[in-house]
Amino acid sequence: AQSVTQPDIHITVSEGASLELRCNYSYGATPYLFWYVQSPGQGLQLLLKYFSGDTLVQGIKGFEAEFKRSQSSFNLRKPSVHWSDAAEYFCAVGARGYGGSQGNLIFGKGTKLSVKP
Amino acid sequence: KAGVTQTPRYLIKTRGQQVTLSCSPISGHRSVSWYQQTPGQGLQFLFEYFSETQRNKGNFPGRFSGRQFSNSRSEMNVSTLELGDSALYLCASSLGLADYNEQFFGPGTRLTVL
Known about the structure:
The structure holds two protein chains of two kinds.
Chain A: E1 3-5, E2 10-14, E3 19-21, E4 24-26, E5 32-38, E6 44-50, E7 56-58, E8 64-68, E9 73-78, E10 87-94, E11 106-107, E12 111-116
Parallel strand pairs in A: 2-12
Antiparallel strand pairs in A: 1-4, 3-9, 5-6, 5-10, 7-8, 8-9, 10-11, 10-12
Chain B: E1 5-7, E2 10-13, E3 19-24, E4 31-38, E5 42-50, E6 53-57, E7 64-68, E8 74-78, E9 87-94, E10 104-105, E11 109-113
Parallel strand pairs in B: 2-11
Antiparallel strand pairs in B: 1-3, 3-8, 4-5, 4-9, 5-6, 7-8, 9-10, 9-11
C-alpha cells in the first residue's frame, strides 16, 4: 500500500538558518510527489511537485526538493528560513496511471515548522 | 481568477444530525476532490468528482457521500454524524485532464460535532 512518512513532527530553526524536512514514501513505482504548506486557518498551498526528469525541483518561496529513488525520499530544503515560513508542511504522493484521476493524494502526517527570531 | 471557495467556513452540529458542505471550484476546473483533516488521522482522501461522476473514492463509510453539479460545484454530505467526524474538510479543484494537474485547495470547512 502507498504511504508517506514524515519522521519529524515538529522542527524549530533560527531565522536565517537552513532547513531540511524529510519525506519518505512507499510506492511500487515512481509516484507523483508534492510538498504543500498550510498556515493556520488556511487551506493547502502547493510548494513544488515532481513528475519526472530532473530530480532537483525548484518551487515557490525559495524552496527546493530532491527526489532520490534509491532512498524513496523527497526531502524539502530551503537555504535560509524566514519567520514567515512558520507553518505546517505536508509531503504527498499521487498514484500514476489512475485513469486521469486527480484525487487520492496520500499525505504524510505533516511537520510543523517553528522559526526562532 | 477567484480561488476555491467553501461554505460554510464553520459549522457546529450534534450527534445524529446530517450536514452538507459546499465547494465552488476555480472557473474551468472540472475535478473536485474532498479531504478530511484531523489531528489523529491527518489528511485523508474522501472522494473525487469529475464531470458529475464520482471518479475515485477513499476508505470512508457510506455515511459520507457527495455529488457534483453541471457547473462543477460540489457538495458533500455526512449523515448520522458521530463525534469522530469533527474535522476540517478540504476541497480541492483541478482541471482534471488526463495528465496530473495541480490541485488548488480551498480554506476548508471546520465541522464540530457535539
